[in-house]
Each structure stands twice: as structure tokens, then as C-alpha cells.
Amino acid sequence: MIKKYSRAGKIWMAMQFVACVATAQILPNTTIPMERPRLHFTPSINWMNDPNGMVYYQGQYHLFYQHYPDKPVWGPMHWGHATSTDLMHWQHQPIALYPDSLGYIFSGSAVVDVYNTAGFAKKGETALVAIFTHHLPDAPKDKIDFQYQSLAYSVDNGVTWTKYAGNPVLKNPGIIDFRDPKVIWYEPEQKWVMALATKDCITFYASTDLKNWATLSEFGKTAGAHGGVWECPDIFALEYNGRQVWVLLVSINPGAPNGGSATQYFLGDFDGKSFTAFDTVTRWMDYGPDNYAGVTWSNTGNRKILAGWMSNWNYANILPATNWRNALTIPRELSLQNAQGQLLLASAPVKELEAQYLKATTLKSITTATTLPAAAKQALLPCRIDMDLTTAAGFEIQLTNDAGEILSVGFDDSHQQFYIDRSKAGVHDFYKGFAVKSTVPRFKKGKLNFTLLLDINSAELFADDGCSVMTAVYFPVKKFTTINLLPAAGAAIQQVSITALKPAPVAVK
Fold it and tell me: How is 286-325 classified by DSSP, letter by letter?
């Protein structure tokens, strides 16, 4: 099996996938299976990683994702498929794309070809077109150009997909990492633009028909973090104070601020040919250990909605599991925020989450350790905790159970950082570096707002209008049954609201 996944010579695959596949079984001391979350998307069975090909069309959000339907570990990649009308309730659909003679089906994107530029639609039809990476796993040992870009299309609203007979449409120029195409329509020049991960930078291409591509420019060789391979790019525009600002997302593995894999971003201008960053500083979309390869849905107008893979390549293959493994973050709406004079990419749970709200419990003027009253216990999991502090001061939220396990989330005033501490939150013997405290800097001053979204085994933190964000998973032996609020000595929590959330289980079609 190791030879099967490493003979192509891909350094990143060899380091990240092969080692994990070789040790993919749960270690002997691990006694708890992964319980399915109540709000987050999970595969119907076996393995899932990157979300990809996400597109909105005729009232439906299409979610495609990297999927191995035969085992709960990484393997020959397919495109799994699910649909939703509200981003909360998902329905599994048949697998959209299977591996073929050209290779596995790696990540990519999907667009609505409104003008039928590719010619796949007949009169009265509109084609959805998927652009993805073919990865040839059995390439000769001395061959490095085993990744290339291909097309598939659907003319029945994404129900069935046909691979283009002329694949691949973009051949490899002779590099190992050549993958994960994100394609957008660039209206000013009536053309398609592709952002492609090429080693440790992003290369832009253009096409008028999705089939023939010309190189435009490169970005990133001297910008941002380079601790690992660049992959899963995304490019889109957001408005800030009447100005159009372009955002370039780049996932990187390894090299994350809290270890393993994470997503960095750049802000700048794009003129249809080149992306020019305002600066080359490294900025992270989510500082937590468990948000990777996030990309946005296409065809959503001015809204930019993102979902990420809620895991980390350090341990993704060996997380506690039964017959399925890994989940996605809650869908998040992206915006730009001014934080102390610097423009930052911010994120928050999508407004559609509000439809899941149940009764809220509000507490005020908390100056000492406080356990949620019995009336609020119904809000335990899943739930949303919102907090406002007139002035920033230290505090901690603790989830506990009768097994003595503790998940701690809070704000450290002395270091001006938020944290998620899962070191005592449950099973962690499957990976030495799992039981850690992760942190994210505070990017604003003055009044502090804080939102914590909790599911069965995940915490998503959004603070200071979504400028400071973290995501982490954990695996308690027993469900958490108590929430304690702990303001720092001399500090006060002006108000905290705990809102119970209705589960939104994924339906199987």
C-alpha cells in the first residue's frame, strides 16, 4: 500500500498521506468513536477531505468534496456530492466524479456557464462546468508531470456529470505540484480566469471557452508563508467603503501558526492578468488547527460564503472514527474589517444559522465563576455563546463532564490573545501533538465581542467582528454536560447569551 501511494514521487503525498495510511487504524488506547456532529456536514460513509466544486444554481447550493467511499482513510479520490437550499440541511447525492484512466479526481471548482462558452449546452440548457485536477497515481518513478487540469459538465442541474472527451485541457509544464484550479468569470474582459497552485506559488491562466488556456502571470514566490506546499487557491472580490478589494486564499501544508495545515490570504488588486498584493505579510484566515482548504461557493452574487475542511493533515487519517471520518466547518460569510488601521479578512457564521435558534438564556454582570443555570442546560450542545465586554478583560468558558474532561476557550488579557485549549478535552493518544492550547492574536482594541459555536466535538471561535478566528476539534469520552463562565480576577462579563441550536442532520437520498 505504501508503494502504491508513493511511487509517483510526490513529496507532499509521500510525507502526508503515506505515513497516515500506514498507521490509519485507531491506536490501541483510543476508546471512543467519532460521534457525528449535529450541525456540520459529514460524509455518508468513509473518508472526506477538501470541499471543492462548490456552486449555487437555481436555489441549490452544490457541495462537492474529496471523497474515498471505500475506507475511512485517504485513498483514490472521487468527488462526493451533496445539495442544500439553506446551507444547514444537506442531502447526500450520488458520487459525481469517479477516478478514470487519467487518474484520481483531485480538487477544483465549478461554474455556471451562462453564455455557453464551452458549447456543452444545447438550446434551452445551461451547463454547470467542473474544472478539476486529474492526478495519475501510477506514473513512472522519473515522471513529475502527473497532475493536469480537466473538465466535466452537467446539463441537468448537477444531477449527472459527463467528462469532456478532450481532457486534459491544461497540460503540466513539468512540475510536481500543479493542481486545484479555481475558475471565475472576469466580467470586464468577458473571460474565464483560473488560479492554479503551482509548487509554492499561484499561476493565473485565462480562457474564453474553458478548454484552451493561456498563461497570464504568477504570484507568491516572495509573499506570505512558504513552510509547505501551496494548494487550494481561491480568488474573489469584496467591497470595502465603496472600493473593490481582491482576496486571494492559499492553503498551505505544513507551516500553519498552530501546526500542520491552514489557509493564508492576501488582499490586493486584480486587473484580469495579475494579482498585486497590498503587502507581502503573512495573514491567516483561521488560526485554529482544524480549518483547511476552504473555498467559496461560486454564483452567489455579492455574498462570499466559504466552508473549510475541519481537520488537519497532521492527524486527519487517524482521528477516532467508526465508518466515516472528518467534517466541514459551518458555512461562513466573508467580509473586510478595519482593525487598528489594517484591513483584514473577517468571517462569521452565515445568517442561515439563525433558523436553527431555540430559546436563548442571557446572563448579565458576571464577576465570579458562574455555572449555567438549569434552565440553560438545554442549550449545551449544539449551542452558540455570544459575549460582549465594554472593555477587553480576561475570561474563560469551560465545558466539563463527569469524566473530568475540560474544554477551555477564552481570552488572555495579558497576552492579548484568544485561545482554545483541548489538552484535557478527551481522547488524544492517536497523535502526540493533538492535546494542545492554540491561540490567535487579538487584532482590535477596546470593546470586545465574541461568538463561540459549539457542536458535539468542535469549537469555532469568532471574535472582534470575525477578525480573530479559530477552529478546533476534540473527542470527549462523555458528552459535556456543564458550561462554566470564569471572568478573570477583577474583570466583569457585561452580558453573555447562550442559544440552543436545533440539529440539522444530513439526509441520505
Answer: --SSS-EEEEEPBS-TT--EEEEESS-TTTGGGSS-SSEE
Question: Do 296 and 334 form a contact (C-beta atoms < 8 A)?
Answer: yes
Cell triple for 460: 469555532
Cα 316 to Cα 53, 263, 321, 355, 475, distances in angstroms: 21, 16, 10, 31, 13
Return mean pLDDT, the chain.
91
Residues 6+ apart with CB under 8 A from 156: none
Helix (H, G, I), strand (E, B) or coil at 188: helix
The x, y and z cell numbers of residue 160, run together, are 449527472
Q: φ, ψ for residue 268 (rounded to 5)? A: 180, -155
26 neighbors 430 (Cβ within 8 angstroms): yes
pLDDT score, position 374? 58
The yes-or-no verdict on residue 266 having pLDDT over 60 is: yes
Which active-site residues does the annotation give?
50
**Phi/psi at 491 (5° precision):** -100, 165
Whether 196 contacts 175, CB under 8 Å: no
Give the least confident one: 293-302, 343-352, 498-507: 498-507
- Residue 138 φ then ψ, to 5°: -105, 35
Contact 336, 238 (CB under 8 A): yes
Q: Is 9 exposed, middle or buried (0-12, 13-18, 19+ CB in 10 A)?
A: middle
What cell was used for 506? 444530513
Q: Give the residue carrying C-alpha cell 471523497.
A: 67
Residues 137-161 have pLDDT tens digits of: 988 878 899 999 999 999 999 999 9
Over range 361-388, report the average pLDDT: 82
CA-CA-CA-CA torsion sign (390, 392, 396, 397): positive
- ∠ CA 205-116-213, nearest 5°, is 15
Strand, helix or coil for residue 16: helix
374/12 Cα distance (integer angstroms) = 50
Give the residues across from 263 on adjacent strands.
Answer: 251
Query: In one letter, which amino acid is 133?
Result: T
Task: Reply yes or no: is the peptide bond before residue 168 cis, omega within 30 of 0.
Answer: yes
Stated as kind and residue range, the H or E segment containing 421 is strand 417-424
pTM of the predicted protein model: 0.93
